[in-house]
Amino acid sequence: MKYTYYLVFLLFISGCSSNSGNTTFDLDRNNLKSSPNLGVNVTPRFSSALPSSTKMIFYFKSNEVRYDMFNNWAQTPQDLLARHFMLYFNNPEKQIEKTAIENCILSGTIYDFECDTNSKEAIFTVEITISDQNENLLMSKLYTSRANLEKLTASDFSIAMSLAVNKAAKLIYQDIQNLKK
């Protein structure tokens, strides 16, 4: 009888709890359809000055950082960005642009991949390095881009971060084009 009460209690407890579950987010891929094909070799993983984690980072004050316990990125920012830039700069549906530098290597270090709750912005900072096949440095530049969030939610954060990453990608594209000139 004691076990029956215990079993009923466990069923009651499990039925009363709400399981909202974790949500996993990725960078938006819709803009990749119109992206260029530069034939750029993107390193398979970017480095990062951030902890290697899939947790979303929210800044509440200049020194208060919180990690979202319920919402995650699909991959670490390093892997997300390497994959996104590989797809962005190598659109298989387009011909390789003749103005592109042949066989250049794009790598990067991520410094910011976070949400500032005070300004309601996604902030993305990356240092991009471009070198030739012989590993001669052609360019090294720091890019920072921001995008506003409508609401302070994980979903809006992922949308805003996608916009910020795509803003940076367009600037990187312009700089790669200018290298050829």
How would the blueprint of this fold be written?
Elements: H1 2-16, E1 23-25, E2 41-42, E3 47-48, E4 55-61, E5 64-73, H2 77-89, E6 105-116, E7 121-131, E8 137-148, H3 154-180
Parallel strand pairs: 1-5, 2-6, 3-6, 4-6
Antiparallel strand pairs: 4-5, 6-7, 7-8
Structure explained in plain terms:
The chain has 3 helices and 8 strands; from the N terminus they run αβββββαβββα. With 181 residues, it is α/β, with parallel strands linked by helices. It has one domain (37-180): ABC-type transport auxiliary lipoprotein component (Rossmann fold). Strands 1, 2, 3, 4, 5, 6, 7 and 8 form an 8-stranded mixed β-sheet that branches. The longest helix is centred in the C-terminal third of the chain and has 27 residues, at 154-180.
CATH class: Alpha Beta
Terminal CA distance = 84 Å
CATH superfamily caption = ABC-type transport auxiliary lipoprotein component
Q: Please indicate the count of domains.
A: 1
Q: Architecture in CATH? A: 3-Layer(aba) Sandwich
By helix and strand content, what is the structural category? alpha/beta
Query: How much of the polypeptide forms β-strand, as a percent range?
Result: 25-35%
User: What's the shape?
Assistant: globular
Total strand count, please?
Answer: 8
Percent of residues in helices comes to 25-40%
Mean pLDDT across residues = 83
Radius of gyration using CA atoms only: 21 Å
Low-confidence stretches: 5-19
Tell me the number of helical segments per DSSP (H or I, 4 or more residues long).
3
Major sheet summary line = 8 strands, mixed
* CATH topology tier name: Rossmann fold
Following the backbone from N to C, one meets helices and strands in this order, namely HEEEEEHEEEH
